[in-house]
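Tokens in:
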């Protein structure tokens, strides 16, 4: 009877390092997506573009693209090609982003919309990098960033509605939950 317990206890420790390795492999993708959404949220609240942040994020996504694919590339020539194709790819994205950040262009596009456009360029660049590298994770990151653009726009327009819905749900919850306090008799 104690033997199955020993085998169960012996099976648990290898699972934790496997989970830790899985989380460590996914951390770059989650970090980049979080930074992108934080950048849009900050720009929407401050109504000022943060061009340096977007440039940093484009370079970070390029680095994540190279670093995550690097172990699967064996040949030195293929690694050289990987670096140069990704460098050219992300340099192109940076040029397009900087065109959007020109003063003449910024006058035509409000700051919150400008940040959403920059996020869309990053999403497009990320998705195309994933297609080029045949990396499902990078493609998904680009897709998630692209889907966050309409989600952020919708949330901004619906914030008051969502707040009122939350207040309504809390009020209903308070009303219909059984009272835990003792009833007072007069």
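Residues out:
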């Amino acid at each position: 009877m104690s033997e199955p317990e020993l085998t169960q206890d012996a099976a648990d420790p290898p699972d934790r390092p496997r989970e830790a390795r899985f989380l460590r492999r996914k951390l770059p993708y989650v970090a980049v997506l979080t930074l992108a959404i934080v950048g849009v949220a900050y720009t929407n609240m401050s109504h000022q573009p943060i061009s340096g942040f977007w440039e940093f994020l484009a370079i970070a996504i390029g680095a994540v693209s190279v670093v995550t694919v690097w172990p699967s590339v064996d040949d030195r020539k293929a690694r050289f090609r990987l670096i140069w194709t990704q460098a050219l790819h992300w340099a192109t994205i940076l040029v397009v982003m900087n065109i959007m950040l020109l003063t003449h262009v910024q006058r035509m596009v409000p700051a919150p919309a400008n940040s959403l456009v920059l996020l869309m360029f990053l999403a497009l660049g990320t998705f195309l990098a994933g297609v080029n590298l045949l990396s499902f994770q990078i493609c998904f990151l680009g897709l998630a960033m692209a889907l966050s653009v309409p989600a952020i726009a919708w949330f901004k327009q619906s914030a008051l509605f969502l707040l009122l819905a939350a207040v309504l749900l809390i009020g209903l919850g308070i009303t219909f939950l059984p009272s835990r306090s003792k009833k007072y008799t007069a």
